[in-house]
Each structure stands twice: as structure tokens, then as C-alpha cells.
Specification:
The chain contains eleven helices and 13 strands. It is an alpha+beta fold and about 400 residues long. It folds into two domains: about 210 residues, Ribosomal Protein S5, domain 2 (2-Layer Sandwich), CATH 3.30.230.10; about 170 residues, Alpha-Beta Plaits (2-Layer Sandwich), CATH 3.30.70.890. The strands form three sheets. Strands 5-4-6-3-1-13 form a six-stranded mixed sheet, with helices on both faces. It has a four-stranded antiparallel sheet with strand order 10-11-9-12. The longest helix has 26 residues. The protein starts with a helix and ends with a strand. The model has no long low-confidence stretch (mean pLDDT about 95). It binds alpha-D-galactopyranose. Alpha-D-galactopyranose binds next to α5.
Amino acid sequence: MTKRGLEQLVENASGTFTARFGRRPKWIAAAPGRVNLIGEHIDYNDGFVLPMAIERYCVVAADAKPTNDGTAAVFSVATNDEVTVSLASPRPHEKRGHWSNYFAGVVSGFLERDVRLTSFDAVVESSVPVGGGISSSAAFEVATATLIESMTGTTLDLATKALLCQKAEHKFAGVPCGIMDQFASTMCQADHLMLLDCRSQQIEQIPFIDPNITVLIINSNVKHELSGGEYAERRSKCESAAKKLGVKSLRDVSLEQLMGAQPRLEAVEFRRARHAVTEIARIMTAATAIKAGEWSKVGQLMYASHESLRDDFEVSCDELDSLVEIAGEIGPAGGVIGSRMTGGGFGGCTVSLVETSLANKVADSIVAGYEKKTGVEPTVITTRPARGAHIV
Ligand code: GLA
């Protein structure tokens, strides 16, 4: 999506607000989805991740209610339903996995910080595909938090804001996620990748402006339902492996140490830990290679990351493997530098680096090959690194 795309989204949300509530919205906040170039399932192991914001946003438009009844009325354009959230004691929706939980969870986070809200109406509209592994939920949380900051005149420091959103996801959506998505949606900058040290929360913004390189995101358009519990299971195996190794997290383990400790670990713990330890090493090499413009090296690291996620971490699926295989078959001669699954896994998207001059051709070939193999039509997103959350 171009800047015009965000403008269009804002216009739509604003128009829907006016049609529904009979006045114009006073506040509009936008927060982007993200794609992670490398460093998957690493944030909760205290390692490094390398995401960028994408030109797909969640927009929340709002205005105070004419009378204060202690609630927020939130209308979702995507699901065409309205939910009433108590501002004094927000609770998760009775339907498990309901979209409004992200909103209510963020309201709850502000309450915990003694930020009181008066009643308001809101409309949420998003161009971040749901279930695509490119952070539609973090975009919604961060857009909501940005809106509330503006409505209440409260400015949280950026890390506090991202952590508040992460907590909303833990407590209201029941997903024990790491910090990557909310940090990315809050702090990514246009034309930069964000190298985030998930232990110290230090950030290095790495310029990503080579006009010859394009980021191609392909949504497999499948989402395997086991994703919820599997994520928590992966996290807990990493934690139990770290515990057996006597360290705080897998960030503190070298490959040699891990190999030496293999007999003390369950086979599954060992493989999960091997992914984490090798992936942390790959990110650092990739970050250096990106700064030096050594793209083919970056590409090789992306394929290695995919293999590790597929074989050791077991969070890929046939459809993601097919997308990466097809990209690999096109290869450097056809303009593909590297490719891997991105996000939590079990469906969702792949991210590929491609030569800009061949990007359309590559996308067409991957779409055709994937359709032929799986019978599913994928969706293509090409994007520049976008700007993080902001008031519109
Ligand atoms: C999800 C989580 C993140 C991260 C990724 C995997 O997106 O929300 O915290 O763990 O999966 O890298």
C-alpha cells in the first residue's frame, strides 16, 4: 500500500464513523503490521529480531460520546459488528478469540496506569490481513493505544506503550507472545529495518533503501488451527531447555554448549534450542551483511532460517514450504535473493528479497506455481519499510 493507500483507509474509517454515529471523528490513529526479515521465535528467547513495518495499517477513528455512559462502542468494519466495552472494568469478550479483546486489553492496560477514559465511539478498519502472521493484532493494539494517548493527553514512552500492548495480548487474547510485534508497530521507521535486542530492548535502525532490492510478502492464505497452543508449547520447550542448561534464556547458550548438553535434554527440547541458538547467530550475520549490501549472503541466511524453522522448530507447513521452494527454484538468475516463512508459522506469509526489476515477474511465477501445487490462490504484498504508529 502506498501513502495514498493509508489515506484511503483513513477516509474509509472516517466515512464509516460519520455514517454510523452522525458526526465526524475527532481522533484517528494508525499503526502498521510488520514483516520480520530474520530472527523467528527469538524474541521470547531474549535474542535479536529484524522486522520492518509494512504499508498496511490498522486505523481507529473515534470521538467522545455525547453523554458519558462509562463505555466505548467499537465498530469493526471487517466483521460488521459493534461491541460495547466497559471503561471502568474491561473484560475479555465471552466469545473466545473475539477481535474486541485487543481493544479491551489495551483499555485495561491504561486503567492499570490510572489513565481514566470517558465514553467514546470508535470505528476500526484494517488493511493488515488477519491470520497472515504479519501482526494484524499488534497493529490493532498499538493503534488503540495511540488513540487513547491522544484522547487523554497521555504520552507513554514508546517501550512502555509496546509492553502495555503485549500485556493486552497475554491477558485478553491468551497468547504468550514476545515483544517483537508491538515494538515493531510502535517504533519502526520508514526506510529502515529495526534490529531489536529483545533482552536490553535497545534498537538499531538500519537504513534499507537500496532501490534494487524489493521485499515481497506472499500470503499462503492458509492458517492451520493448531497455531494457538503450539506457540505456547514452543515457548515452554525453549524455557525448559534453558532451565536444564542452567541459563536465564537460550540467548546465553553457544552451539558448543548446547551440543555438549544434548544428553540432558529431551529430543524435542534439543531441536527447539538448536533453532534458537543458530537463528540468533544468523540474525547477527544477516544484520552485518545487510549493512554491507551483501545480499546473496542475506538470502542464504533466510533459506537456512526457513529450514531450521521447518525441521527443528516445526512451525512451518506444506504450503509455506511450497512457497519457499518455488522461490528457491526461481533463484538468483530469476531475481530471487532469499525466502523464508515469517511470523509465528503454521500458515500465513513468506517474506522474500527480490531484485526490483524482476519483482513482478517473480511474484507472478510464485503465484502460478503455488496455485498449481496447492489449489489455493495466494496474495501478494510488495512494500517499502513503513512508518510506525502515529496520529493521523
Ligand atoms: C508471533 C509473536 C511474536 C514472535 C513471532 C515469532 O508473531 O507475536 O512475539 O514470537 O510470533 O517470531
